[in-house]
Amino acid sequence: MDDDLEDDFEPLGSEEPDPLDADNFDAVDYINKQFPNQESLEGLSSFIGQLRQQEKQIEDGIRGAIRRQAAHGRRAQADLSDAKLAVRELFERIKAIRSKAEQSEELVSDVCRDIKSLDIAKRNLTLTVTALKRLVMLITALEQLRSTAECRHYEQAASLIHAVEELSRHFQELSHVARVADLLERKAAVLGDLKQQILDDYMCLHGGIGSATRQESLPEGWGVAAAKCVDALGPGMKREVVTQFCLRLLEGYKDIFQPPKEASGLETAERRFAWLKRTLREFDDKYKSQFPESWRVPCGLCDLFCHVTRQHLVEILDTSHHTVDPELMIRVLLKSIDFENELARKWSVEADQDQGEGYPGPSTSQLLLKYPDVLSSKAGGSGKVEALAPKVAKEEFAPRFRGIISECFDAYLSTWVKHEEKQLMEVLQNLTSADKMVGHDEDNDEDEDESLEPRYLYKSAPELFAAMKGSMNRCAGFSTHNTLFDIFQVFRKIITQYAGKLAGLLPGNGKKTLLDVAGVQAVCCVIGTAEYCDETLPQLEESLLKVISSDFQERIGFHEEQEILRNLVNRANDALVQSVSCSLDEAFGSMTGTNWAAFSQDVGDHSAFVGDISERLPKQFEPIARHLSKIHYRFFCDKFVQSFVARFVTEVHKCRKISEKGAQQLLLDTALIKTTLLEAPVIAGQGRQMPTAYSNYVLREMGKAEIILKVLSSPDVVDAASISAMLGESGADDPLVERLLALRASGDGSEAASGFPGLAATELQPP
Q1: pLDDT in tens, 226-255
Q2: In the 8-state DSSP scheme, what is residue 391?
Q3: How many helices (H) and strands (E) does the chain have?
Q4: Torsion of CA 277, 280, 285, 286, to 10 degrees
Q5: pLDDT tens digits, residue range 415-449?
Q6: 584-763 maps to CATH 1.20.58
Q7: Domain spans in the chain, listed from the N-terminal domain onward
Q8: What is the model's pTM?
Q9: Looking at the domain that runs over 413-575, which CATH code has it been given?
């Protein structure tokens, strides 16, 4: 709505909102509010008059607004026409300005093109003049360098070399031009002649034909000036001078020690190192003043000496390593390592960093050149030729001395390994041929941890391990790679051989032998020695892992040898068990020789064979308990009880027929034997109690034998079902039931029923 139209309607609602203007106007509701009751109808006429008056005002306002809107529309069209006309005039003016700008741009381009051509011509002219100046300077510098070199004015020549090199770099891109290429070739020839002349001057220091005359022609202090010239020629020239000079010094060394000369053998290795020390002292006295410290000529001499010595030793070892004394070879190797370490400490990179940086670059004021200002490609140069040339990084001459000689021995150390194996085998043979037992007695109140240590072992074991550790330490002093791994393989052979010699001290496999006290002591020493070796091998393995290269660590281990030693311990324990078992043969023979089927005596005291067993077991256990550690003594007791119970049941079945009273007597004897098995280890061990597991095992296994005898002594058992009921675990068809029926004197079994050795194997289990 137009602003004027809004102004016309504003008085109608300026005081408060008119309900008639509301969006949700409801006529009925509005009338009810105006006339809520009958009394209010009295003002109906006046209310209608007000509404008509208001309607008239609104119509008048609408007519006025329509008239004003029509007038404003005509005025807007006129303004729009004026604006379009002004825009057309503006476009015409812009087009005219653009045309004039294009004409001005063409004029400026013509002017700039001429200026650019003049600028390019000026720059090319400047470059040409500079190039000509540099060309003149290069020709002049080369001529001056040639003349100064002939006169051996090396200090001035050093300055000229810097200038020549700097100027030559500007013409490298023009080397395709014939005149420039000829000039560069001339420069290379002049520098080549200068290098050869300097080399000859340094070589004349050694003497020789014509060297005296040449030395007389050298000016005073030529060495310092020549060193500056060499530095100017670059690191390659310095290396060549040092190398040629040192090789000339080493000619005398080669004349003395070059194979196959008399002094070339390994036994003269110390003379080689002494020769170098003497030559270094001679260098300090005669030649040190002619060389700068930064050249490190003694270091270069040591490096070349090591390479020549390495080549000599390779030739010697290649032809004689099968016949050379291994101990001599190792002595030379160790001396070489010490010598290398000494050189590495003396000529380290840190020591090289302490040397001076050399002399400063020459100033352009020292050069008699026509255009010194064009030496630099940049304006405002510092005036130093050295500053204009690219900086050459200082060369660190620190060769790798460690291993430079000693590494040549690696390919020939197998001879020493074989020698070391032979030595260890001889040590093993000597130790075992006159071996002695060593040990100690334990107190009753000893700690449990100490009981793991063997009481007695052979003296050869610790001495053999000491010899192997010494061999390992010797090898680690010069090799931690293949050679040390080969020594580890030798150790495995030695341990296997030693285990074989210990096994030779035991009775033969499967052969039951009654051992005397000395035999028991020997078997116990085998157990203690094997246990000592088994516990010491991990320590030796750990020592090897600390020194050997990481490439071999995964292959280091004595697992197979430890298994051999543990099997040896088991065999030795079996030998002790068989020995004690053999001592009971007479007692068990008395048991099976008794006619138990006709036994009718009253059950009272124990049988004679039980007394024999009770008397023999403590005596047989006593030397074993005295010579074994607690843990191995308990292990022996466990194995013996397992074997004894199995044999006892077997011997019961060998009795053929057993009467009721005979079974009762055997039941009493079994109880006494059970007590003996519990007490004998304690008596032999001087009161040391056995673990509860041992007692439980004895009670459980002997209890099974007691059940069998109870079945045989029962007067009511007459059939398989009754026997199965008493046994509890066996069925009527169980072979054990049949065997028990055969044992009963009043049973239906065969009169010639024999023993059943398989019973023990089926009934008994180790604790």
Answers
A1: 899 999 999 999 999 999 999 999 999 999
A2: P
A3: 26, 2
A4: 130
A5: 999 999 999 999 999 999 988 888 765 544 444 44
A6: yes
A7: 3-123, 413-575, 584-763
A8: 0.68
A9: 1.10.357.50
